[in-house]
Amino acid sequence: MGFIGDSIDSLKSINVRQALEQAITLGMIVSSALIIWKLLMCVTGSESPVVVVLSESMEPAFQRGDILFLRMGEDPIRAGEIVVFNIDRREIPIVHRVIKVHERNNTNPIDIDVLTKGDNNDKDDRILYAPGQQWLNRQHIMGRAVGFLPYVGYVTIIMTDIPIIKYVLIGALGLLAITSKD
Amino acid sequence: MHSFGYRANALLTFAITILAVMCAIASFSDNFNSPSPTSQVQVLNINWFRNKPDGDDEVSMTMNISADLQSLFTWNTKQVFVFLAAEYKTRKNSLNQVSLWDGIIPAKEHAKFYIHTTNKYRFVDQGSNLRERDFNMTLHWHVMPKTGKMFADKIVMTGFRLPQAYR
Prior knowledge:
The structure holds 2 protein chains of 2 kinds. By secondary structure, chain A is an alpha+beta fold. Chain A has 4 helices and 6 strands, in the order H-H-E-E-E-E-E-E-H-H. Chain A has helices at residues 2-12, 16-44, 154-161, 163-179; strands at residues 50-52, 67-71, 82-85, 94-104, 112-117, 141-149. Chain A is elongated. By secondary structure, chain B is of the alpha+beta class. Chain B has 1 helix and 9 strands; from the N terminus they run αβββββββββ. Chain B is elongated and about 85 Å long. The chains are: A alpha+beta, B alpha+beta. Chains A and B meet through helix 1, strand 4 and strand 6 of A and helix 1, strand 3, strand 4, strand 7 and strand 8 of B. Strand 4 of chain A pairs antiparallel with strand 4 of chain B. Chain B: Keywords: Endoplasmic reticulum, Membrane, Signal, Signal-anchor, Transmembrane, Transmembrane helix.
């Protein structure tokens, strides 16, 4: 209770200069977060260096809420790799394993056909691809999973399923940043 | 400086940092494991071998697959995903990899296995290049940790050949 009382007191004693300083600090924090994110994108060579697992199609290895670290090198795509790809009509990236590879001879850039399947699915991913699409090519693939952290991404799933929590959290953080004494 | 808010914040930050360091160490400890897996594959029978109406070749075979992957498991291993791929080269494609069978090994006790199976996934070529084709049977595995870096490796077994004619 004392904590809320302190916050209300400090809210009353706020002056313009102090408020501006708080705003700049907040801006610096957001910018540094953005810089780190963009740096990660450069280092890993992938559009999304970290993804959250959203479906159960790769269980028991990856559960909903796990975080995957991605990397997109120049190495060729081989069977067994866990890749993240986007299908044209869907906005959520899919994380599945490559089960078939057909790579064309001597082409530059490399021409490769790839078929994927979720470990926990019975059928391969042809039903997920765009109508008439039998294979994935290199341009569809956004990255390869190289490491993972369990459970950490569950916060993202909760925030997507119950959007109110997202606003409450951001509101509370903003309030905290403005009313803190330093 | 000593309010509840500051103390809770400091505690939480410290706890999360320690947790992250522990995850990194757990993953790093996997590097000290030097595995020595073994494997053997026998093709017992070519069940059928035909050219499909759409022009692609397809073959169905029965195989014995045996392997000992116990040395891959560490305390930080959640499961090992193992699959057998037929790998071959054709005139048009420099590499073809077709997964024929896969399985999940959840614990060290199940890592030494011997199975008798037909191919789980269809062995289909892009085109009609499978007659008398030499191919390798490669056993691939993917070690999935409880946290951290994933490792993958394989054993290549050469010397397999598909029949000369459809049957």
